[in-house]
Amino acid sequence: MFTSEGKKIISTPNAPKAVGPYSQAVRTESLVFTAGQVGFMPASTDLVEGGVEAQARQALTNLKNILEAADSGLNYVVKTTVFLTDMANFAAMNAVYAEFFPENFPARSTIAVLGLPKGALVEIEAVALVASASGE
Fold first, then answer.
1. Average pLDDT of span 116-121
2. For 8-30, what is the mean pLDDT?
3. How far apart are CA 56 and CA 129, in angstroms?
4. Is 118 helix (H, G, I), strand (E, B) or coil?
5. 71 near 126, Cβ under 8 Å?
6. In whole angstroms, what is the distance from residue 63 CA to residue 24 CA?
7. What pLDDT is stored for residue 5 in this prediction?
8. Could you read off the pLDDT of 62-82 as tens digits, one per residue?
């Protein structure tokens, strides 16, 4: 249900719940804006083991699940922002990212940051179209 402001709060048990005063995502009639996702397992705030590759894979899986809960999906993503604690991890993150976005790439910014929650190595957020609003 949309609020009087024209937005719908998205929450799914298939991604980590918000650990602060924010939503997993907010949807309007035509767009979905996700919160940044790190490599937390959906049932906890424990980071997956295996370094930046495993964390990027889990973060992107969390994004996928949130987008699907909002009547969207990875194929509807128009923009992502990737935050890395070390740009030396760019190639490893990029290889995993390419598994999730093999074609029709969204626009992307990648930013080096000093730190992320719980010592995460990567965080990824997205803006996507709502499937019913995409004209398909």
1. 95
2. 95
3. 22
4. helix
5. no
6. 9
7. 83
8. 999 999 999 999 999 999 999
Gap between the Cα atoms of 34 and 90, Å rounded: 22
CA distances from 61 to 38, 42, 51, 100, 131 (A): 10, 10, 16, 9, 18
Task: Judge if pTM exceeds 0.85.
Answer: yes
- Domains detected in the chain: 8-129 (3.30.1330.40)
Say which DSSP state 76 is in. Answer: G
Quote helix, strand, coil % in the chain, to nearest 5. 30, 25, 45
- The SS3 assignment for 120 reads coil
Cα(66)–Cα(53) distance, integer angstroms: 20
- Residue 24 one-letter amino acid: Q
d(CA 129, CA 74): 9
